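Students often ask why inverse folding is considered easier than folding. One informal answer: many sequences map to the same fold, so there is more than one right answer. In these notes we will look at a single instance of the problem. The structure comes first.
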C-alpha cells in the first residue's frame, strides 16, 4: 500500500494508553500542519485533560464526543446509545470521505462495535470509503478480525499491572 492511500492504524488490547497514543499521533500530525479530527465514541461528559489541551490546538485539531457516553452493562445499550453511535458514524464517514482532515481518529469505535451499537461491516465500509491520503486511527479493546485485516498497523496494548485492580480510582491528569 502506498502512503498516498492513507494508513489504517488500530490501537487495541486491554492495556492503558490506546487513546493517549492516538492523541500523540494527533499532536505529531498537527506539528506538521495537518488537520486532525478525533471523534470519541463511548466517552463520558466529564472534564478531561485531553479536551482542555486539544482546545488550545484548534482549529488545527478538533475533538468531539459522539454518543451518550459510557454504557451500563447490566441494562445494555439503549435507543439513545444506538442513535448516538449512528450519528457519530455518520460524522466519521463524512469526515473520512470529504478529506477536510488528513487524520481522523475514531476513539473507542471498536468498543461501540463490540457493544452492538455499530456493525463491524459498516465501520469497515466507512474506513475503506475514505478519500485518498486520509489516515485513520481506530481505538478500543478486542478489535474484530475484519478490522485487524483491514489495518496497515495494529498495536496491542497489554495490561501487565494497573492500580485499578487494587481499588485505586482514576486520577486527573493520568487516566482522564
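Output (designed amino acids):
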Amino acid at each position: 500500500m502506498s502512503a498516498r492511500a492513507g494508513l489504517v492504524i488500530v490501537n487495541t488490547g486491554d492495556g492503558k494508553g490506546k487513546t493517549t497514543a492516538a492523541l500523540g499521533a494527533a499532536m505529531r500530525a498537527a506539528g506538521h500542519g495537518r488537520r486532525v479530527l478525533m471523534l470519541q465514541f463511548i466517552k463520558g461528559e466529564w472534564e478531561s485533560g485531553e479536551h482542555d489541551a486539544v482546545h488550545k490546538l484548534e482549529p488545527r485539531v478538533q475533538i468531539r464526543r459522539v454518543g451518550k457516553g459510557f454504557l451500563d452493562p447490566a441494562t445494555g445499550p439503549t435507543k439513545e446509545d444506538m442513535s448516538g453511535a449512528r450519528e457519530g458514524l455518520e460524522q466519521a464517514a463524512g469526515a473520512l470521505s470529504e478529506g477536510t482532515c488528513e487524520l481522523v481518529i475514531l476513539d473507542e469505535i471498536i468498543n461501540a462495535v463490540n457493544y452492538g451499537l455499530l456493525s463491524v461491516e459498516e465501520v469497515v465500509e466507512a474506513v475503506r470509503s475514505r478519500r485518498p491520503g486520509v489516515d485513520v486511527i481506530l481505538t478500543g479493546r478486542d478489535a474484530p478480525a475484519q478490522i485487524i485485516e483491514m489495518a496497515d498497523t495494529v498495536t496491542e496494548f497489554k495490561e501487565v499491572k494497573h492500580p485499578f485492580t487494587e481499588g485505586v480510582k482514576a486520577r486527573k491528569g493520568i487516566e482522564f
